[in-house]
Design a protein that fits this description.
Blueprint (H helix, E strand, L loop, with lengths): L16 H29 L6 E5 L5 E6 L2 H4 L6 H13 L8 E6 L3 H10 L3 E6 L24 E3 L4 H19 L1
Parallel strand pairs: 3-4, 4-5
Antiparallel strand pairs: 1-2, 1-3
The structure holds zinc ion.
């Protein structure tokens, strides 16, 4: 029996519609994460830790994109997520981003997780866990903490190895440069 997901030639006995939908969503998540990775790469090339973020609206359209600019701007709050949230709120003319999905290559830090809760983002999709400052689940879980008044969906591990590699290579190169 042939199961070709790309052509949607499926036996419904084997793969039900829910799984197909999840697979299509997964492909969309990969596509936007790949966009965020390009932004991360650009941040790295400009001397910032390579992290990129994009926000899409309920129609699946890109409404904001940003890369980490902390070093370039000498701004401690210039993480990719914060810049993207500001841009999305400006585009939609509202700080309430319930219908939006935020994609970010690295698990958000406590500052960004706080901003994500404040913006009421519906879903966060991230690439790789941050064992040092990850605040969606790895070190802290700010959205589910007592300090949070907003529930959101969190999906981790999309293009995880690519997201990890871009960071590891950047830190390795920097160590070589500073020797
Ligand atoms: Zn952050």
């Amino acid at each position: 029996m042939v199961i070709k997901i790309s052509n949607i030639l499926l036996s419904e006995k084997i793969i039900d519609k829910k799984i197909l939908m999840e697979y299509e969503e997964y492909l969309i998540h990969r596509q936007w994460m790949s966009h965020a990775l390009q932004l991360a790469q650009s941040a790295g090339e400009h001397g910032d830790v390579p992290v990129g973020a994009v926000i899409i609206n309920s129609n699946g359209e890109l409404i904001a994109e940003a890369e980490n600019r902390k070093e370039r701007d000498q701004d401690p709050t210039a993480h990719a997520e914060i810049i993207a949230l500001r841009a999305a709120a400006k585009t939609l003319q509202t700080w309430r981003l319930n219908e939006c999905i935020l994609y970010v290559t690295l698990e958000p830090c406590p500052m960004c997780a706080g901003a994500i809760v404040h913006s009421r983002v519906g879903t966060v999709v991230y690439g790789v866990d941050d064992a040092k400052t990850g605040a969606l689940r790895t070190v802290l879980n700010i959205p589910d903490s007592a300090a949070s008044n907003h529930q959101l969906s969190v999906i981790g591990g999309i293009l995880e190895s690519d997201c990890r590699n871009v960071l590891q290579m950047w830190f390795t190169n920097r160590r070589h440069r500073t020797k």
